[in-house]
């Protein structure tokens, strides 16, 4: 066997360094939303706005002059976020409203308050999400991860629809994930009746976000309400804090390759604010552009989207008013 010479070793080292730097530059090449859209007189709701991607989404809306509602479960963290947003933007029209998406009664209470107190809702960002909670049944008989990521936002969006329609042109943005492409929808296991896995239930719930975006867009055709789903990129946030160490540790090591939460908010902002999204209702975005090719084929089956919608109505107790018309 011939050992490598110093020259060869150096060549290998250089190639590896170049690869490493290219990977870094590629991962960190994040398109930023540069639109100047102003939001004076508009009202925006961001769920999970006390941290991560949601915080920077809310911060940007506040900079643009919107009234911003931080819809959060953890009140203390939300108040701290509010203070720092007010300080950074000088916009005092930022409020905290309590919302626990894993509880349908909390969702109803939140929606009732918004419907009573707010004149309008122009942008709803369904951003809050969770991964890795152990299998646990909520007070509503739902599985907690799926309830937080899908059933809660489903009910919330539906309860706010009249406000959104009255405020049209308005938008609903669903923060999904690229992992939706690995998701499946097993209608007999939406509550973990048969099997449970931390990853799969997350993948499936993120796929459900896309199916709902499709079905809602169909139902809202010609109302001036645009709905879309998106992947924010791989972002340095606390999202994985419930996951086991063998998942969290590699992410720590690769942290330098991941986006900052501010970079992670860019596609959300693009979907909420860019003019070209207005007539792309029901679509899926990533990297501040259309990314339909990444969508799970299940999302292109209207029957599956419709069925998930119907089951979600049953399991959340939501009754659409003019169902016969749809
Ligand atoms: N980070 C990524 O790489 C990545 C990739 C793809 C998709 N996403 C998606 O991006 C979204 C934002 O996540 P992130 O990365 O910014 O994570 P994060 O920093 O963990 O933020 C998640 C937010 O959701 C809130 N939340 C969790 N459970 C809730 C509940 N039951 N009711 C109300 N709020 C709840 C959290 O509030 P508490 O403080 O109360 O827990 C927190 O504010 C998620 O939908 C996630 O699936 C992230
Ligand atoms: C996203 O999609 C539709 C409309 O945009 C909505 O009904 C659904 O509840 C939303 N939220 C999630 C997280 O799926
Ligand atoms: C998940 O938990 C619920 C209730 O705690 C239980 O009925 C169900 O069998 C569990 N699912 C699995 C696959 O362990």
Automatic annotation (TrEMBL):
InterPro entries according to UniProt: NAD(P)-bd_dom_sf, SDR_fam
Any single Pfam family the record assigns to this protein: adh_short
The keyword Transmembrane helix appears for this protein: yes
GO molecular function, one term: oxidoreductase activity
Transmembrane segments: 6-26
Gene3D superfamilies found in the cross-reference section: NAD(P)-binding Rossmann-like Domain
UniProt keyword annotations, A-Z: Membrane, Oxidoreductase, Transmembrane, Transmembrane helix
Keyword Transmembrane carried by entry: yes
Source taxon at top rank: Eukaryota
Protein family (similarity comment): Belongs to the short-chain dehydrogenases/reductases (SDR) family.
Name of the protein in question: Uncharacterized protein
Organism of this sequence: Littorina saxatilis
């Amino acid at each position: 066997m011939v050992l490598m010479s110093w020259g060869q070793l150096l060549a290998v080292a250089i190639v590896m360094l170049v690869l490493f730097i290219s990977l870094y530059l590629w991962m960190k090449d994040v398109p930023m939303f540069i639109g100047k859209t102003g939001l004076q007189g508009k009202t925006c709701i961001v769920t999970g706005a006390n941290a991560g991607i949601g915080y920077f989404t809310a911060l940007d809306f506040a900079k643009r002059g919107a009234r911003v509602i931080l819809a959060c479960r953890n009140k203390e963290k939300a108040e701290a976020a509010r203070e720092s947003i007010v300080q950074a933007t000088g916009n005092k029209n930022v409020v905290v409203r309590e919302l626990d998406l894993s509880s349908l009664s909390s969702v109803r209470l939140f929606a009732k308050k918004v419907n009573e107190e707010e004149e309008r809702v122009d942008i709803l960002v369904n951003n809050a999400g969770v991964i890795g909670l152990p299998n646990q049944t909520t007070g509503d008989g739902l599985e907690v991860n799926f309830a937080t990521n899908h059933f809660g936002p489903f009910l919330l969006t539906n309860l706010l629809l009249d406000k959104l329609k009255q405020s049209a042109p308005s938008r609903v943005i669903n923060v999904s994930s690229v992992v939706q492409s690995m998701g499946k929808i097993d209608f007999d296991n939406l509550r973990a009746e048969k099997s449970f896995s931390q990853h799969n239930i997350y993948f499936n719930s993120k796929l459900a976000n896309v199916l709902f975006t499709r079905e809602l867009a169909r139902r809202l055709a010609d109302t001036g309400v645009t709905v879309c789903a998106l992947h924010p990129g791989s972002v340095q946030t606390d999202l994985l804090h419930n996951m086991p160490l063998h998942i969290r540790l590699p992410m720590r090591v690769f942290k330098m390759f991941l986006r900052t939460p501010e970079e992670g908010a860019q596609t959300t902002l693009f979907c909420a604010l860019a003019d070209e999204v207005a007539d792309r209702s029901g679509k899926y975005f990533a990297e501040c552009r259309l990314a339909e090719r990444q969508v799970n084929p299940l999302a292109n089956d209207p029957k599956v989207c419709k069925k998930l919608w119907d089951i979600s109505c049953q399991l959340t107790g939501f009754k659409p008013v003019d169902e016969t018309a749809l």
